[in-house]
Amino acid sequence: MKLILAIIRIAKMGDTKAALSEAGLPSFTAMPVLGRGKGHGDYEKADETDPEYAELIEKMPRLKSKRMITLVVTDDKKDLAIQTIIKANQTGKSGDGKIIVLNAVDSVRVRTAESGDSTLD
Question: Would the pTM of this model clear 0.85, i.e. be above it?
Fold first, then answer.
């Protein structure tokens, strides 16, 4: 069982939701998050003729609004989930996101108290 955390662009949320559903992975949680990577997205937009602006951006990187998707899948669906998220979000530009995969110990359905892989379907 794997816990998958994906940080994606807000504008890609609809595409990701549709892609996961089409792939047979409709169950996930999404939440707004703020963060930044090592990229300099704002710096790339800075006008090179205004060095003061570029210098200010380098010193004070902004946090950017993103969405974090959380889903738990069986081990055999891990690669499907990862490839689906990549396909829906990859633009080839800085800021496309990040996917983190963690081992999940168990899953319990609250309504029935059953546990294990069957709770993920």
Answer: no
